[in-house]
Amino acid sequence: MVSTIPISDRYRLKTSQLDMPPRLLLGPGPANVHPRVLAAMSTPPVGHLDPSFLTLMNEIQDLLRYAWQTDNELTIAVSGTGSAAMEATLANVIEPEDVVLVGVKGYFGHRLVDMASRYRAKVHKLMKPWGEVFSLEEIKTGLEKHRPAVLALVHAETSTGVRQPLEGIAELCRQYDCLLLVDTVTSLGGIPLFIDAWGIDLAYSCSQKGLGCPPGASPFTMSSRAVDKLHSRRTPVANWYLDMGLLTKYWGEERVYHHTAPINMNYGLCEALRLVAEEGLEQRWQRHQANAELLWRGLEELKLVSHVDQEFRLPTLTTVRIPEGVDGKAVARKLLDEYNLEIAGGLGELAGKVWRIGLMGYNSRPENVLLVLEALAQVLSRR
Amino acid sequence: MVSTIPISDRYRLKTSQLDMPPRLLLGPGPANVHPRVLAAMSTPPVGHLDPSFLTLMNEIQDLLRYAWQTDNELTIAVSGTGSAAMEATLANVIEPEDVVLVGVKGYFGHRLVDMASRYRAKVHKLMKPWGEVFSLEEIKTGLEKHRPAVLALVHAETSTGVRQPLEGIAELCRQYDCLLLVDTVTSLGGIPLFIDAWGIDLAYSCSQKGLGCPPGASPFTMSSRAVDKLHSRRTPVANWYLDMGLLTKYWGEERVYHHTAPINMNYGLCEALRLVAEEGLEQRWQRHQANAELLWRGLEELKLVSHVDQEFRLPTLTTVRIPEGVDGKAVARKLLDEYNLEIAGGLGELAGKVWRIGLMGYNSRPENVLLVLEALAQVLSRR
Fold first, then answer.
1. Is residue A175's pLDDT more than 60?
2. What mean pLDDT is predicted for residues A334-359?
């Protein structure tokens, strides 16, 4: 047993216990979470096939159906962050040579293009400036031209703060016999979203924004139309970890072991979803809208300009133009260093041009709006 | 803002707060975790690009290098469970038509075959009965015959309780110009393991066994030889979430956003790794060995037979043959229902034939050995 190879202590760090700063997270997520969710995260784990855990999984599925307003049987939490759930939607329905049309109006549209191409889809893009939305007419023209098997759109673009209206798109998709795939990462739990009523076939989200849980277990749902495409595949899903054919045997009645679920992440997610159900969606959406409007009025008073027209502005995430001559990065760093307050800069085309201020889930509270406005005022006046 | 679509309360469950049973997890993992790890899990999150989090990421990398005894620069935690890290090793080095040789002597060997084939490798299998190990000679013959680009072996087979000796295999792999990929899911943090001294090019593990953390963030490491293969790819990595070309820009000095890391999972993993460093590897390996031997002696006294020869038996996970006429599933269920004690049944070929008893990480303690032996004695005598 005793090894003859000497053990190296080169990386045997001597450090103290975990000690993280008390941040208020008003960026694009993660956001702070309710104390009940934190308590759930530290509950001693049970096994991934324990009867008590299987009951919890069922509960998560139902509560996700409520949050998403769907009856979809295939509604689960993917064992990874939102990007894993994003990849799961594409991986399960794309077969090589399938045409996929992606509406690109921000960073996450580009990510969908990148991911879809790795599954060997023929990817076409519908482009729009960062900060704008697609009209029904533009989408119809795109479908007519490309005849895709899948149309992928971002409901709430985390890079631009734009809400893409989705009403009417499903009818077009049915007309052109195509699945509708929607990114709801920054909308679920924060703004009106109706998977079934809007005819969405595939959707994914994350835990750390509108749902108010730490990141690590991510909502995924698939309509029966999409499941039909999965079942009629000619090739295996080109991703084992995210293969819904295998995952539904674990999340469904068969309870066949696939992977060891992230137990404590599911505890946290379940508790966060319970808080959503307790509050109620209508109340929750109104709270997000009211606090966002409070923020928008305050920003105007500071003479700061929102990047997006109010009609299409996300209450969960606001993009604010950085005024001429201001070093946006330095301002964000000062907020962090002096007030433990996180806001984010822009991504991609909007890097250096906007700040992103999030009011998501547990963090959508008037006191947080007041603080971020006052802190911004202080830091900007000191230039 | 106010939606005209009525909100359905069909899935709006009214449930109480999270309330999970107090299990002692002596199956194949997850195992129970140290209270300091649980406390870390419930620390309020910071952002995934917060300077304090970047420091934590560096610390995780160093502590993983210690636990694995490697200098590999590319040593990170994958944002998913062990199966995701498993898929990451294959996805990053396999290109279509690459020959991959997998040593199959249990359930997880078969999983490697399935995963590798999804990345369009030409997969060949080296087979061995469940409970045995490969000799150097058998491996040499396989390399000679198949001339693979990658040889994949399972160090600690969680389905059989077997430890595959790894000394000498790297020399063969270099002779045949092939990368050595090793599953260390049930060995890391529990038994002697030397990534560099044994010449392992790719390895993955999980957090919930020998490391003593809940599942959800998983160790991954890659030698410079393997990184060379990644850098010289002709095709993109066929998996966006696990693409090490992108992930190293986040974990490395560039700090380019890739995905939102599971913050609290990384808190837990870091704290678990600190506990490994505090205890020291030699001490930890000896503790696992001593408690396993205590278990083995006790099982013998109960006239229960271990499935694996003592020479190749894993101290982290023991497979015990279910005696003739005993309903193994019913026994496990009784242990759970009456004593909150989890042990597992067999997988695949060993389903119904063995129990699997794990003594991993924080759970490898004499009091747990005593309890499982006494509980087994009670339940078996009552037949």
1. yes
2. 97
Is the confidence at residue B3, as pLDDT, over 80? no
B187 and B334 co-located in one domain: no
**Chain A neighbours among B 319-338 (CB < 8 Å)?**
336
Return d(Cα A253, Cα A264) in angstroms, integer.
22
Of A194, A265, A277, the CB nearest to B5: A194
Residues B268 and B293 in one domain: no
Average pLDDT, chain A: 97
Q: How confident is the model over A97-120, as a mean pLDDT? A: 98
Give the per-residue pLDDT at A205.
Answer: 98
Decide if A66 touches B, using CB distance below 8 A.
yes
Mean pLDDT of A92-116: 98
- Tell me how crowded residue A19 is: count the other CB atoms within 10 A of its CB: 8
Instruction: Tell which residue, B142, B170, B160, B190, has the closest CA to residue B320.
Output: B160
Domain that holds residue B321: 24-30+281-381
Would you say residue A17 lies in a domain? no
As a whole number, mean pLDDT of residues A338-367 equals: 97
CATH code of the domain covering residue A317: 3.90.1150.10
**Which CATH number is A232's domain given?**
3.40.640.10
Q: Let me know the angle formed at the C-alpha of A259 by B91 and B239, rounded to the nearest 5 degrees.
A: 20
Strand partners, A203: A182, A221
Q: Which candidate from A65, A194, A263 shows the least CB-CB separation from B30?
A: A263
Task: Establish if B41 touches chain A: CB-CB under 8 angstroms.
Answer: yes
Portion 155-184 of B in contact with A at CB < 8 A: none
| Predicted local confidence at residue A114, as pLDDT | 98
Of A277, A299, A332, which marks where a domain is finished? Answer: A277
Task: Please determine, for residue B68, whether its predicted confidence score (pLDDT) is greater than 90.
Answer: yes
Mark whether A53 and A65 lie in a shared domain: yes
Please tell me the distance in Å from A285's CA to the nearest CA on chain B: 9
**B103 falls within a domain:** yes
Residues B257 and B301 grouped into a single domain: no
- Domain contains A306: yes
Question: Residue A3: its pLDDT value, please?
Answer: 58
Q: Among B215, B217, B219, which Cα is nearest to B187's?
A: B219
Instruction: Show which of B260, B277, B294 is a domain's final residue.
Output: B277
Largest CA distance in chain A: 72
How much is the average pLDDT of A180-196? 98
Contact at CB, A46 and B23, closer than 8 angstroms: yes
Task: List CB contacts (< 8 A) between B268 and chain A.
Answer: 264
Tell whether A310 is within 8 A of chain B (Cβ).
Answer: no
Token readout for B124 is: 């060949």
Do residue A232 and residue A303 come from a single domain?
A: no
Interface A-B: count of C-beta contacts within 8 A:
307
Residues 6+ apart with CB under 8 A from A314: A156, A157, A161, A162, A163, A186, A187, A190, A191, A292, A308
The number of distinct structural domains making up chain B is 2
CB spacing of B44 vs A38 below 8 angstroms = yes
Picking from B4, B16, B81, B244 by the largest number of A CB atoms within 10 A of its own CB, the best residue to mutate is B81
Report the predicted TM-score, pTM, of the whole model to 2 decimal places: 0.97
